[in-house]
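Input record (Table S2, row 324):
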Amino acid sequence: MNTEIIKIDPDNIDMALIDRAAEIIRRGGLVVFPTETVYGLGANTFDPRAVAGIYAAKGRPSDNPLISHVCSLEQAEELASEIPDRARRLMEHFWGGPLTVILKRKSGVPDIVSAGLDTVSIRFPSHSVAYELIKRAGVPIAAPSANLSGSPSPTTARHAIYDMDGRVDMIIDGGDSFIGVESTVVDMTLDVPTVLRPGAITAEEIASVAGQCVYGGDYSNAPKCPGMKYTHYSPKADVWAVNDMDRIPPAENSAVLTYGGGRFDRPVYDAGKTVGDYAAKLFYFLRKADEDGIKTVYARLPKAEGIGVAVRNRLLKAAGGKVL
Ligand code: TXA
Ligand code: MG
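Output record (threonylcarbamoyladenylate complex):
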C-alpha cells in the first residue's frame, strides 16, 4: 500500500489537509494521527471492514478490543447503551484528555471493535489534530496505538512511520505526543470504578469526581482488559527495571535510562527532571536504544505516585518483570 505522509502543525491547523484525512476515514481507509498520549492508527468505528484493516496493519490478535475516539459527549452516546451519572461526571470533567471509559455497548457498534465483549471503550482526546480529524470525519474513530503489535507505542511521527509506512493510507506528522504513555482505562461497568490500565489521570483523581475508584491490581494479567495480557512495549534490548540506581552491574553495550540526574559509568538516556518528563520520553528512548544497538537498558523505576504508576506499569512490562 502506498502511504501518504503529511505534516500538520497542531498550533496552526491546515483544515484542507484535515479534510483529506477525514475523507480517507469516511471511505474506509486507515489514518495514523497524533494524540496527546501516543500516536493512534484510526478507522471508522462503524465500518467493520475498515476496523479489520487496523488489526491486519498492526498484526494485532483479534481478541483485543479497540478504543473509539470521539469529539463530544453526544458522540459517546452513539456508542454506549447507558451512561451512568458518575461516568458522565468523569467524562465532563476529564474530556478532552487522556481518560478512556468502558461502558455498556450499544448494539450498533460492530462486534469487531469490542472483540465480542458487551462493553465499549471511549476516549475524547485533547490533541487539536485528533479533535479536528474526528470532527470532520463525522464518525467515531477506532484507534489503537500505531505500533506493530508487541512494540512500544510510537510517540513521534518518525516512530509511527517506522512501524506503519506501507500499511496505512495516510500518516499525519503532528509532532511529538505530549504525555507519552497511553490513556488511563477505567471500567465504569463495575460496582467500583476500576482502572484496568494506569495513565496520566490517577485512580485518586477519578475517585475525587466519581466517588470511588481503585487500581485493578495485577495489570499484567487483568482479564477484563484483554490487551494487558500481551507482552507489550518490549524493545529488542534486554530491559531491567531498577530500584537502586547504585546497584547497576557492569554489562557490555549497556545504557542507563533515567530522570532527575545522577552520575553513571556508561551512556545515559536522560529523560529530564520529573517523572512526567520520564513518561514523555520512555517509549521514545526504548526505541532509540534499539536504533543505537544497545543490548541492555537499565531503567529507573519511579515511585508509584501520580503518573509514576503508569510508568512503572509500562517499564515492568518492557522488563518482563525483571527488577534490580
Ligand atoms: O492513549 C491511548 O489510549 C491510545 C491513543 C491512540 O488513544 N490508544 C491505545 O489503544 O492505547 P490500544 O488499543 O493500544 O490500547 C487499548 C487498551 C487495550 O489494552 C485493550 O485491551 C483495552 O484498552 N480495551 C479496549 N476496549 C476494552 C473493553 N471494552 N474492555 C476492556 N478493555 C478494553
Ligand atoms: Mg497499544
